[in-house]
Amino acid sequence: MDPTGRLGNKLCQYSSFWALQRREWLQLPVLPEACARQQENFLSISYFHYGESGTGLSDGPLLLLDHPCSLTEFHPYRRELLQQLRWRPEVRSMYNGSLVGDVYLRRALELCRQRYHRPVFVVSSDDLAWCGRHLAAADVVLAGSTGAGAAGRDMALLAQCNHTVMTHGTYGFFAAFLAGGDVVVPVGFGTMEDYLTSMMRSTGFNLTTVPVE
Q1: Which of 23, 30, 112, 158 is the most buried (most CB within 10 A)?
Q2: Which of the 8 DSSP states describes residue 75?
Q3: Is the pTM of this model over 0.70?
Q4: Domain segments of the chain as ranges
Q5: What's the CA gap between 30 and 179, in Å, rounded?
Q6: Do the Cβ atoms of 177 and 155 come closer than 8 Å?
Q7: Using CA of residue 98, residue 180, residue 107, residue 124, what is the dihedral sign?
Q8: What angle do CA 202, 114, 211 make, to 5 degrees?
Q9: SS3 for 11-59, per residue?
Q10: How many Cα atoms sit within 13 Å of 204 on the Cβ side?
Q11: 148 CA to centre of own chain
C-alpha cells in the first residue's frame, strides 16, 4: 500500500482494500512500498493495478496505486467500517466545536462599522443565497462569482480589500494574507484555538477576535 498522501487518501485506500477482503473473505497480504517497487527491477514480478482499473480482483498479487477511493466497493459495508473508524476520545474532543454562523458575522460587521468610516463589505462565498438571507444590509455587497475560475476571481477581489473578516479555512486566510490590514477572526467555536488563528497571531497579524455566540 502507498504510505503517502494525507488522512483522507489513507482512509480511502484502507476502506477500498478492506472491502475487497470483506467481499471475498480473503486474507490479502499488504506489501511494503519498497517490496512493491521491485516490479520496476524484475520482469517476473507483476501486480494487478487496482488504482488503474478501479474494481475487481485478479489471479495475481494486488497493488493499490494512487490512493484508490472505490465507493462502489466499500459503501455496501458502511456500517461495518463505521465500527472500525471510531474517533479516539482525545481526538474527538480536541476542538469539540462547530462552524461559525450568522451571529459571529453580524457581530464582526458591526465591529467594523464602529471602527472604520463608512465601510463597504464585499462578501464572497460558495453559498451567496445564505449570505443574502443573513447579512443583507445597505453596506453589504454580494460579489462572489460562479463558474470556471470563480475561486480565482473572488480571491483577486478580496485581495483588494483594506481589511478582512474571516470564518474558517485557508481560502479566507490567504485572502487576508494578500489584502493585509486588520483581520477579524472567530473565537469560541471550539475548545482549542484554530491553528490558522494561532499561526497569524504568532507571525504578527493585526488580529481582532469576535465571539461566535
Answers
A1: 158
A2: G
A3: no
A4: 7-86, 102-211
A5: 48
A6: no
A7: negative
A8: 50
A9: HHHHHHHHHHHHHHCCCCCCCCHHHHHHHHCCCCCCCEEHHHHCCCCCC
A10: 1
A11: 20
- With cell 486474507, the residue in question is 27
- Entry field: residues in the chain: 213
Sign (positive or negative) of CA dihedral 112, 114, 116, 119: positive
Dig out the grid coordinates for 161 from the structure. 480589500
Q: Write the CB contacts of 23 (distance below 8 Å, at least 6 apart in sequence).
A: 73, 77
Cell of 31: 506489501
For 139: left if phi > 0, alpha if psi spans -120 to 50, otherwise beta; the answer is alpha
- CA–CA dist 27, 209 (Å, integer): 53
Of 19, 133, 137, which Cα lies nearest the Cα of 69? 19
Buried b (16+ CB within 10 A) or exposed e, 151-185: eebbbeebeebebbbbbeeebbbebbeebeebbbb
Rg (C-alpha) for the chain, rounded Å, is: 24
Q: Render pLDDT for 123-132 as a digit per residue (tens, 0 to 9).
A: 999 889 999 9
**Above 50 in pLDDT, residue 43?**
no
